[in-house]
Amino acid sequence: MRKKAILLLPLLVITLIGARRRAAIPPPGPTFNLEVVRILQQNCQSCHHPDDIAPFSLMTYADAVLYADAMKYMTQIGKMPPWKAAAGCGDFVGTRSLSQSDIDTIARWVDGGTPEGNAADLPAPRTFDGGWPAGKPDVILAMPKAFTPPADVDEYRCFSIPGDSTKEMQVTMVDFRPGDRGTVHHIVPYLDTTGASAKLDTNGNGYQCFGGPGLDTATALGAWTPGARPTPLPEGTAVRIPKGARVVMQVHYHPHFGRVAPDQTQIGLYLTTAPVQKQLHYDFIINDQFVIRAGDHDAKVDAYGAADTTIDVVSVYPHMHLLGTKTKVEAKLADGTTVCMIDVPQYDFNWQGQYVYKTPLHIAAGGVIHVESHFDNSTANGHNPNSPPRDVRWGEQTTDEMCLALIGYTRADGR
Ligand code: HEC
Predict the structure, then answer these.
(1) What is the pLDDT of residues 249-273, one digit of tens each?
(2) Burial of residue 62 (number of CB atoms within 10 Å: 0-12, 13-18, 19+)
(3) pLDDT tens track for 5-24
(4) What is the 79 CA–ligand 1 centroid distance (Å)?
(5) How far apart, in whole angstroms, are the C-alpha atoms of residue 374 and residue 304?
(6) Is the CB of 214 under 6 A from ligand 1?
(7) Alpha carbon of 226 to ligand 1 centroid (Å)
(8) Nearest 10 degrees: CA dihedral of 64, 65, 66, 71?
(9) 348: CA distance to ligand 1 center in Å?
(10) Is the CB of 369 under 6 A from ligand 1?
């Protein structure tokens, strides 16, 4: 035994020296092909690929080198990957965050001169299926034809789209594909079970609609805003779209620097045929009776909604406009305890979205959901759309405000 070890040791040393001499430049730290590209594939490329929401691609070495310093900075300050919900309040599906070791790896790669590394280390590239990150939907509901919004004002437009006239659909995930990402600001799909929307949208050009779809009976089906990613509902839970129902697609167009283009937005539905134990419903918790005084740099607005039956909250989506600075949603349970549902300490209009709980939050009948929103209506708020600031109330325009949370929930009886 001993003899063997002594014999092996010199061999090992010789091999190591040999290897050192052969490698032209020993890599000083992480390389793109070995470490960095794998971090980008897992955490960045879902948005940073051509034709998605990020302004540049991070698919190749050439792409990444161009943005290397910004990548190091944005990951170190925690702004990329974007995720607005504070840790410790709500446990959400698809939480985006980088581990400290990944942040350090990017920094060491940049500091080491962004080496490319060995071609053999490069993993197979990620592919993106025609813009649907979750794969091709079972059903695609599209605007019947392209619509070009006005170039000078915000436009809220509703398009009435037939669902399936032969059978009901059980939807487990909804995704959205804006036709013109430059102007489509947000999309809210509503369910129309009476067909009333078809009478408002007679030629496929849609109709103007503020607030909701302009119908008495419609319910929201979810929402999309820039940055939102598709998230599946919990096992056994689905949204039912009855046979013959229509989906009203409300699109908010926001012209950028007077530039508009024809848009033909699509909604993708992912269906299940497995038994559905619980139907998902959506309700807004709203306060539309507030005034935010001009100059007020921290106006607080509260909204409350009581659970009149026992529910399990599946998702939460807080929403404000450009004056919003932070928002928090809590549930005051019937037994007196308070549960933090979501905390967004640095609200950003461009990074709002629907958050889905890993485990639905149980609220017994009598519980109250409280939305607390804060607004900065002073000149110090660089996003203030009114110059000089003016008193702001509830409204649909980007220059108005909102205080609400859209809650997705199931009832204890499953109906
Ligand atoms: C959910 C989508 C998404 C993901 C995931 C994402 N980004 Fe971004 N990124 C964006 C968008 C959109 C912008 C444009 C700025 C904005 O809207 O905040 C951006 C901007 C950037 C910028 C430029 C910032 C500036 O203002 O100069 C850098 C650098 C960047 N991202 C790096 C990354 C890195 C590195 C990752 C992964 C660790 C990543 N991003 C993950 C969507 C994303």
Answers:
(1) 999 888 766 778 899 999 999 999 9
(2) exposed
(3) 333 333 333 334 434 444 45
(4) 8
(5) 15
(6) no
(7) 12
(8) 60
(9) 14
(10) no
